[in-house]
UniProtKB/TrEMBL annotation:
Composition bias type Basic and acidic residues, residue spans: 126-160, 185-197, 204-223, 230-247
Protein name as catalogued: Uncharacterized protein
Top-rank taxon: Eukaryota
UniProt feature, compositional bias: Polar residues: 283-296
Region (Disordered): 126-338
Amino acid sequence: PTTVAHAADSVPRPLFVEDHGASGTWEMKAGAACFNDTEVSSPCAPGVSGKARPQSAREAQWQATLERSQLLAKTELEQRAQKWCKKETAVEAHRAYKMRQVDELRHQRQAANLQRERKALAAREVERQRVEERMRAFEQSQERWSKKVERAKSLNRETADTVGSAAAERNMAREAKRQALQSEQARRHAEMTERSNRLQQEATTRRQQELEARAVSAERKAVWEASRQQAERLERIREVELEDARRLNAGQPPPAPQRRRGGSSRPTTPCRTAGRVTRSSRDAPSQGETQDQPQGQVPAPDVPLPVPREPVRLPYSRFFPAPPSEEKPVQSKRRPQS
């Protein structure tokens, strides 16, 4: 049996009461047509037993339509089968072409990989050979260098053995010279040390003497200052005595003694001393007076009282002579007598 799908779509068919259209499956058998496993008898089919009846125009038309549809279905089926065969042939050819293309690409990739591996292997081989050559060259250079070193060492040993005695003599001479220089330097250092110590001792002694001399000069200055102050006191006392004498000669009473406050460092008040001296000289009879004159009478104006004029020196001033600036005699500040 031949299965035709949708065979009645393109065939014009009459309208039957029980026509289901082209929604079913037609099967062509000898003398009958089957639609959806239902056998449809054709009255015009040959070899059909039955009572012959006359064929109407409608049946003839239906029969012609059926035959025409069967022919069209068969033709369509053959065309579709041929088209399907062509498609399958094209698909198979395309598949074979793709397979051939893939195989060719695989062979190309394999060949390229193989060629790349061969190149890498050749490069590694070249590198290995280069490294081996370098190692051989390095070993040869090391061997040559070791031979040169051994040759130089042997030559140096021979030279050292040859000049060893001369070098030893030079070393001995150099050592002797070094020791002589060291001894000379030690001697010079000792002399310089001794000289510096001697100079330091002399400077210390000289400085001590200068300090002692300065101390003695200070004592002398203190004695000179004390002598000068004592001389000034005596000069003031003489001035007061002379003033009292002039007053007595002029018939005037002596002035009252003046007291000063805060004068704890002065030795003796000149006014009191002058007053005592004046009273004693006034009470005692002078050289020109007689015993008949009453006591307390003022002497004549033309007879002045005796005044010591020699500079007063302390008992210890002869041991410490005065400096040149202080050897001048003390001048009295006496007023001219009227």
